[in-house]
Amino acid sequence: LGTSVGVGTVVAASQISPSLREVVLSGVSTLAGVPGNDVMLEVTHEGRPVRRRYSVRHVDPEADTLTLWLATHHPGAGAELARTVTVGTELDVVGPRGKIGLDPLADWHLFIGDVASLAAFYRLAESIEEPGRAIFITELENPDDAITPHLPEGIGVTGIFVDRDGRPSGTAEGLLSGLAAFAF
Question: Per-residue pLDDT for 1 more than 70?
Answer without folding.
Answer: no
